[in-house]
Amino acid sequence: MSVPVTGRASAHAGKSIWHAAWLPPAAFRELGSRPVLVHGEGLLVDTVLDEVSRACARYGGRVWHGPPWQVDADLVLALREAGRVPNVAAESARLGATPAVNGAGDGALGDEGYLLARVDGVTVVLADAPAGLLYGMFHVVRLGAAAFDDELPARRHRPALDRRMLDHWDNVDVHPVSGQVERGYAGGSLFWRDGAARHDHARLRDYGRLLAACGVNAITVNNVNVHDTEARLLTDRLGDVAEIAQVLRPYGVRVHLSVSFAAPVVLGGLPTADPLDDRVRAWWAAATRRVYQRIPDFGGYLVKADSEGRPGPFAYGRDHADGANLLAEALAPHGGVVRWRAFVYDHRQDWRDRSTDRARAAHDHFAPLDGRFDDNVILQVKFGPIDFQPREPVSPVLAAMPATRLAVELQATQEYTGQQRHVCYLGPWWSEVLRFRPRGEAGGTIADVAAGRAGAGGGLVAVANVGDDPFWTAHPLAQANLYAFGRLAWDPLLVPGAILDEWIDLTWLPVATGDPETVRRTMHAIMDDSWRTYERYTAPLGVGFMVRPGHHYGPDVDGYEYTPWGTYHFADRDGVGVDRTRATGTGFTGQYPPPWSEVYESRERCPDELLLFFHHVPYRHVLHSGRTVIQHIYDTHFAGVEEVAAMRERWRLVAGAVDPAVHDRVAERLDEQFRSAVEWRDQINTYFFRKSGVPDAHGRRIH
Ligand code: GCW
After folding, report:
1. Residue 101 pLDDT > 90
2. How many angstroms separate the CA atoms of 436 and 271, rounded?
3. Which long-range contacts (CB under 8 A, 24 or more apart) does 133-137 make?
4. What does the CA dihedral 572, 577, 581, 587 come to, rounded to 10 degrees?
5. If you ran DSSP here, which 8-state letter would residue 317 be given?
6. Catalytic residue at 387?
7. What residues line ligand 1, using a CB cutoff of 6 Å?
């Protein structure tokens, strides 16, 4: 028999019912069955206390937050500034653990860091600030029994990136084209419904817990495409934003707002939004002041300007630095940042014009502006030069702007990676991006760029993948992407398989019945390589797109080939791929520093998986793998489908061990993934067979 995953239902009719994701009560069993001492004060300490108290009420433990202190605590969670713990054992554990931290560099734990140790039979979490205590408590939850077994040498834990953020592309109104959530695949929005705030505090609070437990500390509550109603979140609808901020604050999550560059015109009635106009500057200053009166810890603004039809500084003959600095000036007195997106390109390109290359656009626009942005501007750059594809090179902008604070933007919502109908664990892909060294082995990584000098970088951002679906992400296995995002933002060096293990331990094993190890093995077998599987049955060798225009689901090889969007593959009877070389193509390879400018320029040295991104090659071109391009296309597409068939079989094996509702949902999605993968395989293989006339070396069926 399987046990249902414990979720919570709101008492109010019409509000959501949801599953517990990675925090089912049973994940707190170890912590909740012990005597626990919490020492310190503050809003987030209250959150810790609340979490521990609820766990203890359920599992028989007990919590002390005041006298009597002389208890045999098994776990001590203490703020260092709260001073001595008036308990002999706890105090000796605290003192025993502290020197290890003091010896480590400056010894400081920072705003979010903590020290964790188990000394003389007492597990100790020390922090310098309440958020650190909260993160430390979730670390104890992650460790489970291991937090209380053997001695744990004292270790300091601090996030590598200070800014770990999710951007929600949620609309307040249901947009006629993009719906309630643009590129949302998990139902409605957690914040908004049909033009109004949802006020679903219980669920929002649970969302805050999930975020804190994986390390996310900031969100944007509305879509970067800011439509009329959403623009007013900045002014007369600000109360709704303040309410969200209030619910999420106890979990250390700071709220940001996407704003329209045209706000002074559309909301303020001014004749212009020119960034150099004094009336415009005064308008932003006043609007921003009002925001901080309502939300003192407000994070800042996110702006998509002069991109895909959004208003921006170009209309006034100004550039992106003028635009960003306008908002930065308004935010600076309050400690806020403006996050300015670098996703700027010509979406009205003539497909006949071979000189325009969308991949070049962000670098062309922004690299010359390096050094011109104010200190509180963060330039938010999509990780690749095109658009969240399952395979792209890393954006050259990330290597070109040393004097600018840069944030790296990922997409957890699976717009181009199966739309949460396909299993596609993105941890390995993100990890590869974060570990990439744009200046070669001697230089730093993309994670270093996001961290910035002295922690001043823009951090890591992902477009959120959650909604009001009972499983949060519609595909229950897509939760792992959200979890992995948070963990990688905390520590980009974490290994994706190990992150998956944590997620499995927290989410599945506490409620699995029968043989938990089979559940673990099955999850790994299905998810570990699922991103590469997805890559195998979709667009080949980094060429990208080939998705259905508009909704972007399923194959349509030529769907974007003769459109203005700049995403072409240029397949003809002789070959396929985009020539982006300096020698004969668009020159995009020249935007990279060495060694990549040379590696990508060369057909011979270019990595196989990016070959068609950088080169137009004949079908019989031989890859490093030893196979021809055309045979690679056939082989990977047949293999990808077989892998999905195997995933489906594996999932059947855990039928009795996991919640039946979750099992059904995943099974139904795997059926669709299989159907879709077959469609991809057949369309891609048939297309290239017809173009090239080259038969499959193994004589398999191509239509
Ligand atoms: O990938 C594209 C999406 C758009 C999105 C845009 C962006 C919010 O198809 O829906 O708009 O990127 O990142 O701004």
Report:
1. no
2. 46
3. 133/40, 133/44, 133/45, 133/48, 133/77, 133/78, 133/79, 134/44, 134/47, 134/48, 134/212, 134/251, 134/252, 135/212, 135/215, 135/252, 136/77, 137/31, 137/48, 137/51, 137/52, 137/77
4. 90
5. T
6. yes
7. 169, 182-183, 224-225, 304, 343, 387-388, 415
Q: Do 169 and 224 contact (CB within 8 A), yes or no?
A: yes
For residue 357, give the 3-state DSSP assignment. coil
Reported as half-sphere exposure (CB side, CA atoms, 13 A), residue 105 has a value of 7
**Of the residues 182, 306, 415, 635, which is catalytic?**
415
- If you count them, how many residues does the chain have? 703
Read off the amino acid at residue 5. Answer: V
Distance from residue 183's CA to the centre of ligand 1 (Å)? 8
Nearest atom in ligand 1 to the alpha carbon of residue 223 is 8
Residue 327, pLDDT > 90, answer yes
3 state DSSP class of 377: strand
- Residue (of 84, 124, 83, 126) closest to 102 by Cα position: 126
At residue 640, the pLDDT reads 98
What is the whole-number distance in angstroms between the Cα of residue 35 and the centre of ligand 1? 49
Measured in Å, residue 640 CA sits from the centre of ligand 1 at: 27
- Classify residue 40 by burial, with Cβ atoms within 10 Å: 0-12, 13-18, 19+: buried
Mean pLDDT of the chain: 95
CB 483 within 8 Å of CB 503: yes
Output the CA torsion sign for 14, 15, 20, 25. Answer: negative
Give pLDDT, residue 108. Answer: 84
Which residue, chain included where needed, has tokens 């497909």?
351
Q: Could you report the per-residue pLDDT of 209-242, keeping only the tens digit for each?
A: 999 999 999 999 999 999 999 999 999 999 999 9
Distance 343 CA to ligand 1 centre (A): 9
Decide if 134 contacts 252 (C-beta within 8 A).
yes
Contact in structure between 301 and 338 (CB atoms under 8 Å): yes
Q: Among residues 387, 579, 601, 635, which one is catalytic?
A: 387
Contact predicate 677/573, CB 8 Å: no
Alpha helices in 508-602 (DSSP H): 516-527, 530-537, 596-601
Closest atom of ligand 1 relative to the 463 alpha carbon: 13
DSSP letter for each residue of 64-132: ESSS---S--SEEEEEGGG---SSHHHHHHHHHHHHHHHHSTT---TTT-EEEEEETTEEEEEESSHHH
Beta bridge partners of 34: none
Nearest CA to ligand 1 atom 1: 387
Ligand 1 atom nearest 224 alpha carbon: 8
Retrieve residue 345's tokens.
């390109």
Give SS3 for 485: helix
First to last CA, the chain: 45
To test the pocket of ligand 1, the residue of 227, 303, 308 to mutate (highest count of ligand atoms within 8 Å of its CB) is: 308
Burial degree of 14 (CB within 10 A; 0-12, 13-18, 19+)? exposed
> Is-catalytic flag, 535?
no
Quickly tell me which residue has 């709704």 as its tokens. 240
- Chain centroid to Cα 448, Å, comes to 17
Active site residue 194: no
If one counts every other C-beta atom within 10 angstroms of the C-beta of residue 195, the result is 11
Q: What is residue 689's three-state secondary structure?
A: helix
pLDDT in tens, 454-499: 879 999 999 999 999 999 999 999 999 999 999 999 999 999 999 9
* Residue that has been written with the tokens 């009560």 in this structure: 25
pLDDT tens by residue, 547-582: 999 999 999 999 999 999 999 999 999 999 999 999
DSSP helix/strand/coil, 339: strand
Q: Distance, CA 463 to ligand 1 centroid (Å)?
A: 10
